[in-house]
Design goal:
Strand content: 35-45%
InterPro entries: NUDIX_hydrolase-like_dom_sf, NUDIX_hydrolase_CS, NUDIX_hydrolase_dom
GO molecular function, one term: hydrolase activity
CATH architecture: Alpha-Beta Complex
Protein name: Nudix hydrolase domain-containing protein
Radius of gyration: 15 Å
Keywords: Hydrolase
Structural class: alpha+beta
Number of domains: 1
Number of helices: 2
CATH topology: Nucleoside Triphosphate Pyrophosphohydrolase
Length: 160
């Protein structure tokens, strides 16, 4: 678990910021099956999820999401579009109350391999996504929002 401290050394009730990407190629979405870190199962291990994670030191949003996608899949991405800022403090299946910033991105080319945080990568058709109970956190809700966006073309980003 990540521990953050404010200037007054208060570490209670803090929330972390994460970035995730809905990576698109040829009308399909790339999902990663969550694996391990240092040989230990990570949160949501064994479930499918969007590619992403925590910010690194001195990163901005774009740098963080590009790095996380590269680490977890080996794919370069471009044409980022901000889909949603999910700041719901009662997110299901969340152990840290993360504020999640979710992008839509195009896959450019695969230049590497996934790290141990992803045990398997798979491209899915939008109408053949894994069942919600097989998807980590509330990433299934983000995928549903993306599908709705494709049909309705509402303004982005979505807050909450």
């Amino acid at each position: 678990m990540i521990t953050c401290y404010f200037e007054n050394n208060n570490k209670a009730f803090l929330r972390h910021v994460t970035v995730n990407a809905i990576v698109i190629k040829g009308g399909q979405i790339l999902l990663g099956k969550r694996g391990t870190l240092n040989g230990k199962p990570i949160s949501g291990s064994g479930k499918w999820g969007l590619l992403g994670g925590f910010f690194g030191h001195k990163e901005n949003l774009v740098q963080a999401v590009k790095r996380e996608v590269m680490e977890e899949s080996g794919w370069e991405i471009n044409n980022l579009k901000l889909l949603q800022i999910n700041d719901n403090p009662n997110r299901p299946k969340e152990d840290r109350q993360n504020v999640d910033i979710i992008f839509i991105a195009n896959a450019v080319k695969q230049v590497g391999v996934s790290d141990e945080e992803v045990s398997k990568l798979q491209w899915f058709d939008l109408d053949k996504l894994p069942a919600k109970e097989e998807i980590a956190f509330d990433h299934g809700d983000s995928l549903e929002l993306y599908k709705k966006y494709l049909k309705e073309k509402f303004s982005l980003p979505v807050l909450g």
